[in-house]
C-alpha cells in the first residue's frame, strides 16, 4: 500500500498553453521522505468528480534544489491532467506519494551524456540535465528535444537560458509541424538520430544515453544507437505511453478465475472475470493495492504470480527474465487460468 502525504500546492506555472509545472510545499517533517534522484517520479492522488484518481508525474526539479516540482501536460480525455492544468491552483491541498522509479541519473565526472526527449518526455530529462550542469562541470550534456511546434515546447525559454549559461550544454530542437530557424524540421527518427551522432556531434564519445517519450520513438532511437555502436546497457529509457500487445489481447478469455491476493501479510480470495485487469478488480473489492499510472509504464503496481498464469496487454518495464520469474504489472494483467495467486509482498 502506498503512503500518501497531504501537501499544499505552492505554485502552478503555465509552461505552455497545454502544460503547467506544479511546485509542492513539502512540510519539514517529510523532507527526508521526499529526497530523490534525478529521473524519478511521484504519484499524485485526488478525488475528481467523486472518483479517486492517481497519476504518476516525473520530477523536473533537481535533488539539490530542495524542491519537488512536476510538469503536467493536458491529455485528450485525461481526467487528472485536465484537472491539474485547468483547476489546480496555488494553495490547494493535494496528496502525493514519495518519489520512486528506476529511470535514474548516476552522476560521474568526465562523462558525456546525451538525451532524446519528445513532448512531456522532457520532464525527467530536465532534472537530469540541470543536475549534471550544476554539479558536474567536467561533464557535458547534449539534448535533442522534439515537439510539434516551438509554442508547444515545454521549458523552451529555460532551456535557451541554460544553453547560454553553460558551455558544456548542447541543445537542439526539432519541430514536426512548423519550420523555425532555431529548430530542425522533422521528427526524432533514425535519420535525425544519425545526423546528430554521425555528423553534428561525431567528435563527442557519448558515455550514457537517456530516452524519454512515446514507445515508437524510443525503440527507433535505441535501435539506431545500437547500430551506431552504442552499448545497450548504456541506453536508459522511460516511456510515457506504451503500445497495446494485440497478441496478448487476443488471448484474453471470457471465463472466471479464483484469485488469491497477498498484500501486507493479509490474504483475500474471490472470483473475478478474466476480461478484467487484476488491479481494477482489486480496487472494486476495496483492496488497497499499490498503483499509479495505470498505463503499463511505471512499476508501482508490480506483483508476483506464485501460482497460475496471467498475460499483460501492455508492458514497457519488465524484462523477459522478470516475466519468466512471475512478475506482472497488475494494471495490465489478466488471469488466464482457473486459479491464480498474486503476491504483492514478494517484490
Question: What does this protein structure show overall?
Answer:
There is one protein chain. This protein has 347 residues and is of the alpha/beta class. It folds into 3 domains: 4-97, Elongation Factor Tu (Ef-tu), domain 3, CATH 2.40.30.10; 112-239, 3-Layer(aba) Sandwich (Rossmann fold); 246-343, Roll (Ubiquitin-like (UB roll)). The protein contains 8 helices and 19 strands. The strands form 4 sheets. The protein has a 6-stranded antiparallel beta sheet with strand order 4-3-6-1-2-5, covered by helices on one side. It has a 6-stranded parallel beta sheet with strand order 10-9-8-7-11-12, sandwiched between helices. Strands 14-13-19-15-17 form a 5-stranded mixed beta sheet. The protein is globular, with a radius of gyration of 21 Å.
Oligomer: single chain
Strand arrangement within the widest β-sheet reads 4-3-6-1-2-5
Low-confidence stretches: none
CA gyration radius, whole angstroms: 21 Å
- The CATH class of the largest domain is identified as Alpha Beta
The H-level CATH homologous superfamily of the largest domain, spelled out, is Nucleotide-binding domain of ferredoxin-NADP reductase (FNR) module
Q: Give the CATH architecture of the largest domain.
A: 3-Layer(aba) Sandwich
- Helicity, as a percent range: 10-25%
Strand content: 25-35%
CATH topology of the largest domain: Rossmann fold
Give the helices and strands as they follow along the chain: EEEEEHEEHEHEEHEHEHEEHEEHEEE
